Amino acid sequence: MKLAQILTASGTFLFMLYVTWVFLKSDDYREFPVIQTKRHADIKHSYERLVFVGDVHGMYHKYEQLMEDKVKPDSNTTVVFLGDFISKGPNSNRLVEQIILNDDVGYDVKCVLGNNELRILYALLNPISLTKRKLIKIKFSSEDFLPDLPSINKNHRRLARELGWDNLARLAAKCGAMWELQDPLYDNFTLVAVHAGVLPDHLGNPPLKEITDMKYVDVNDHSHTTRQKFENATRWYHLWNPLDKKKYSIHNKIKVIYGHDSSKGLNIRPNTKGLDSACYNGNKLTALEYVWNHKTKEYNHIMHQISCQD
Prior knowledge:
alpha/beta, 6-stranded mixed sheet, 8 helices, phosphatase activity, 26% strand, single chain, Purple Acid Phosphatase, chain A, domain 2
């Protein structure tokens, strides 16, 4: 390497160190929100529409098409994004700024964070690579968290820069890792919104790695969850279908609604509803709506889908 190249590389590295030092010392950094792991809201079943949307992955125009052509949300509608609503697709910025953080969008918006949102938050808090001892963790109300570091790529870092501190701080303050939507007038019927899934014995204190990244669980050790299959592993939703309510001390009707698992696609079971139907790969974008049926006195669910092929 020539001397000029060495000096240029050294200068760039020192500049990035300086930028990081200024960033870490800034008031903005100290004020980055602590993210609520679990959030709760009561359902007003007499009129509220609850619409859960699978992984959008920055496909803003497809999301808008789904809303305009199929869902047709009104002021009594709550739309819940099931994580991985940004990254990969071309319009993550528009989705965040014009829908999720827009108080005038015309309907209520809630969101859970998926593995891709967490990678982008990590990239924001760690703008250059640091030794593992000095990495800045994402602070949740239940634990400090580091995502899977090898999975963080240049796209996550680009989006962290483009979305910027203010938008991502507002996103962190608005979203949670899990939403519990409960109807106190209907035997505490509960809709649990989460990105990857949650085990029935972990509803009270869900581990972040589990609810943002899990696909498999060890049948003999529920603290062991992974994305990859391993010996003694089963898909996590098998613990819910059928559900042993006595074993897990569950007394009300619960439905877990999630995304994350495009390899399985639409995966509708009695107690779990998987809605990642691979829109980014050209398949479909799916929303599942829950609405109170005044005649039968129970909740009905309605599927909404559009094609993501151009």
